């Protein structure tokens, strides 16, 4: 028998290398197809891909010498397809057919395949591990071809710079030359939309559509448009798979069933979480009984702080509006979506908590995830914005791993008013550098932080509520939300340290303290800073500022229902 693993490489530039949302949508669909439906369609019959009840493989496993199966699909998920073939001929035919399909229908998508021989006397868990190691080596050592793409007399693709093969028309006033890669991506958009519609619950979506363009993600009249790129990923999934392999090291049939069941359950949890995020957004739109095409965010005194106005779908005869939200990568624990910049953190929070709840319902054990949120101008190079989101999730995961036994889900974000030159460490040193301590609390725990209680979303959220005046707290008029100059002045003095904050409170705040955002940080309300020990990543002894994150988000955060649970 032959064990085959299929993966893809160079996915980031393939999916996110364009500033046209349609092309990103189509590219993501093609990647999903290559390790999903296309791969399964190339597996020779008869084969088994079903997850049966009671831990059995339908009584028909390729591991059974009397079985007539040509192949056993161990699992398809997480960007991989793992298949056990009866012999080399079946494996060769599969690799050949899938390669042809990808070359023809997804030009320039890089497919990587690794295989190993397997005997019934071998350990399937060990063979699986060895084959994944082969796959990793193949991905790292893969040579990048440098062909002659075209001649000077050829018209070049506007998106890739490669020779154009056709003109694509995405709108009446948007026709441009496209390479074979871009042509395939645009062609796949309709199928991608159907896949998304089938994946998400559309019961409440009769009046809404998913957007095809970044400009349709929602904006306020007269304001510059910002989008949020949210990248979420499950924590410790590789370790969970490894634990399953160790548990079933001598039970090959049990390993196949358990891995397949685990993959299906993770997909289900992610699907539920994404549907929960969509539902929270729809309910937020429904809070305005008159206008279903706008999200209005007000303080507790009725003052309008910001609003997200939905774009009408002018091409649809039935009318409707484009949602300020669009999933791009989905189907496993690795999820990426784009949305209006003011909704990015709220939707990320909803997704992270919903994923925890869904895994608890399914696995009877709560699994966690992390998210990175980059908020940039809508026409900023999308590949760079996504790369920033990946770096941010890396920061969140590194912090989460410091205390894995008690750690939950973590979140990190960056709001880019200017360009993005350098990595996130360089950017933060340049923009938030403060010799006296750390100006931001990020990354933060979504719930309680056992390691550093002050570095939690609850602390940031308490500050946002105070600066947006979303609670009256016995007052007759708003304090901070209608005094933007006061908030800007506080941001400036926070950079200068505790002494400057004390002077600010004396002269500009009638010596009243800053909002109480954390009970154990008694100096924050009077000095803005609190010595709270060393940073667990760097072991440096410096104080933290408790208000800068909330002040930075005060003009750029719109709460959804799930975020509002922190008010209790």
List keywords for this structure.
alpha+beta; 19 strands; 568 residues; 17 helices; six-stranded mixed β-sheet; single chain; five-stranded mixed β-sheet; Alpha-Beta Plaits
List the helices and strands and how they pair.
Blueprint: E1 2-9, H1 11-16, H2 21-34, H3 37-41, E2 47-48, E3 71-77, E4 80-85, H4 88-105, E5 110-117, H5 124-141, E6 166-171, E7 174-178, H6 180-187, H7 189-199, E8 208-209, E9 226-234, H8 237-247, H9 252-285, E10 294-298, E11 304-309, E12 321-322, E13 325-329, E14 335-340, H10 344-363, E15 369-377, H11 382-400, E16 410-415, H12 424-432, E17 444-445, H13 457-468, H14 484-496, H15 498-508, H16 524-527, E18 529-530, E19 544-545, H17 548-553
Structural features, described:
The protein has 17 helices and 19 strands. The protein is globular and about 85 Å long. The chain has 568 residues and is an alpha+beta fold. Among the domains are: 2-141, Alpha-Beta Plaits (2-Layer Sandwich); 457-567, no CATH class.
